[in-house]
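Hey L., structure's done. Input below.
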Amino acid sequence: MQREVGIKSLTDGEYRRHMFYDGFFEHLEGFEEVDNPPLDIFKLYVPDVRAFVVNNIKPAGTTLCTGKIKHVKSGYLPQLEALKALVRPDEVKNIKLTLAAPEWFHLRHGEHAFKQSVYANRDEYFDDIAAAYRRELEILYAAGLRNAQIDDPLLAYFCAESMLNGMKEAGEDSGALLNRYIRLYNDCLASRPADMTIGLHLCRGNFRHSIHFSEGGYDAIAVKLFNEINVDCYYLEYDTERAGTFEPLRHLPKNKSVVLGLVTSKFPELEDKQVLKERVLAAARVVASGSGETEEEALQRISVSPQCGFASHEEGNLLGMEDMRKKLALVKDLATSIWSDA
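Output:
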């Protein structure tokens, strides 16, 4: 389908996963999958956790650290090899693999994310996660991966007033925690090769049946997000008003790029291409105003994409296969109407 519509970057659509964040933690020594976990180990200010509780849905399972963390095998390598088998040798460089956010279980569980008898504090816990992440990237790079995307809706939660207020009520310092997560990211990426592109995707939830969990523009985290996390590009949700305006893009530095998720992946209705094109040009004006570039120069650091995946959960969103094809075709058509080399 991706080839059919002319998209160069090739992914497997996470078809081999139950949830989008599968593939890392459960393959590390020291982590244990827990069925029917008690509700009191979850942080109820986390938007998706809160949504489940409000709707009387108990989380079915989670993954907790019960021993020293050690990378013993790659959970992503089989997925990469399976995808390599489906493409031509000259297309391997175009493969993109999505990875779990390193702080995924910590935000959800806080002090319950690891046994205090194993790690005295979160810094020790994060240090071993970062070491495992570096090893994972090393293995994937050796196998030919040159483009990785870290999927992290949790960072977008730091834009949600509901979570920020909930953390304050719980005595948690949201600013300090965000800073610690940024440090974790940079530790995870400290040894990645210069020719390995790392992207960071933020959205506000993309659960089965097209459900989202939070709202709020990127304004609250833009300066830190764009300037302190050592990634190359940002894949940002921008298909609805809940993602806010383009104004935060003023803080995007000249050495980084942004992929605007303008085409919704939640519903089958097709957007108006001309309206989308005007939005891209509006975003370029904002980027240029912050960087001092011309609008044309800023436009060269912008790309377009669907807002998120069509199936972050195995049950997927409210679209059929033909709907997905049309969405991808719209993305390609939009891109070629703006960039001659798209």
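The chain has twelve helices and eight strands. The chain has one domain: 2-24+73-337.

-- N.
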